[in-house]
Amino acid sequence: MKRFKNWLDLIWRFCLVIYAPFFLIYYLLGIFDTYDFYSIQMLNMMVYIVGFILAFVSIYQTTQLKVDLKDVADLHTKLKMKHWRVVNEQPSRMILEPSFDRPFRWVIKSEVELIFIDGNATLKGPRIYVRTLKRQLKNQKVFWIRKPLTILRDSLLLIVLGMTLLFPSNLDWQALWSQRKILAEPLALTEVQAKQLGNTNENTHNNGYAVENDAFFFYVESNNKIVRTNHEFKEKETVISAPNNYGGLRDLNIIGEWLYYTKDSVLHRVQFDGTNKEVVYDSPDMLEMHIVGNESYFIMENNNRNLYKIDLNEGTLTKLMDTYVTDISIYEDSLFVSHPEGKDGEFVVDQLSLVDGKKQQTLFKEPANHLIRWEEDYYYLGSDTTLKKLSIDSSLSQTSLTEEQLDYFIPTENGIYYTYQLNPTVNARAALHHINVDGYENELLFEADSIQGLAQIGDSLLFTTVEDELSYTTRKIDLKTGEMEEMN
Q1: Taking CA 206 as the corner, what is the angle to CA 201 and CA 207, rounded to the nearest 5 degrees?
Q2: What does R_g of the chain's alpha carbons equal in angstroms?
Q3: On the chain, which terminus has fewer CB atoms closer than 10 Å, C or N?
Q4: What is the distance between the alpha carbons of residues 50 and 193, in angstroms, rounded to a whole number?
Q5: Tell me: domain 172-326, CATH 2.60.40.10, correct?
Q6: DSSP 8-state assignment for residue 32
Q7: How far is CA 209 from the centre of its chain?
Q8: Which of 50-59, 167-176, 290-299 is predicted with the least confidence, judged by mean pLDDT?
Q9: What is the reported pTM?
Q10: How much is the pLDDT for 181?
Q11: Is pLDDT at 157 greater than 90 in this prediction?
Q12: DSSP, residue by residue, 330-358
């Protein structure tokens, strides 16, 4: 019974003094919000914690040993030289405390009782201290209590203990660093309407290569620059430029007097004339970025594709969904999210409130990528990446509009434009097609080695063709006349 009580005493001391500070620090950093509680890593963490506790109990549990002790005349001097302090002394009995083994000697009851009678001594206390004292009384060397070794041991142990708690975490350290950096260097405030959408869902799902406001068109030209024109595509000026064939400019949004864009998935903003360029969020893991008002919603790719939002003025980063998210769209005050649900992992598309983040309803149960609400229907790429159509009424069944596996599609007043995935066994070149909203009247419009992105601004559809992996050409289709021309 005494041994059991001794074990319980050691366990709660270990958890309270050793692990509790880590839990507090991780809670304040928001690391627990990144935990995947049903993962194998969570099981690994629990196994390691139990292993550390058992090792701690084994090392420090109370034990008793005997040792020959013929000469006690200079015992005080010897104990002091061996890093022991006498805290209580009686005839034939001493209570000792070690001056080594920080911080663990502060965690446990570190006292060692020494009773000596007729040339024999009985030592009682924590096992590692009793064994150490026995060796010292027999004039044997003990290396582990030397200060450099204890510092190295304790440092490595604390690192291992801390890392153990990160096993079930989907933590993105770069995201935390970026958040800290933004909070330390706040951006100039942008006054906008709360519901202002930075770009259309149609453009955003097609890499956001173009955006417009009441005065200007902005679009990515030739894969390496962002240009600004008036609504007649005249008075062209370069706002952002990059090296030839760069390919990292996308996700254009307009909020207030700022043009937002990503470069290598790092969020920037710049004023319309190209001045005052700023880094908004420095994390190269942003996908499906939608900006509404002063908030950006996006999927963090390397963090298990969890859903986040960031306040563009204050820089505060918030996790909205701790689950694998495949797609998001924003309409009015609602966020449409495609993700697996339940133990079976059945994919659903949920409608969440942008105000409080609460679920409003499940729109339908099926994987959906690039979800677009257009008139009375939902259009999206299904699990096989073919184009699907589903009535918002939900009383009508889903229909497939294409047999090809698509890269991009965009519905317009003039029908649906799409590009399909390049597959050497099926088609040697990428192609741009046009169909009506029911999937009929298929028309081939253009072929190239590759076609990147689709975007509608005004009455024009923009896309970029690639030949020989080096020649990028931005092209425009007039949606009223069907005429096509180069933009370079």
Answers
A1: 105
A2: 33
A3: N
A4: 53
A5: no
A6: G
A7: 25
A8: 167-176
A9: 0.64
A10: 42
A11: no
A12: EETTEEEEEEEETTTTEEEEEEEETTT--
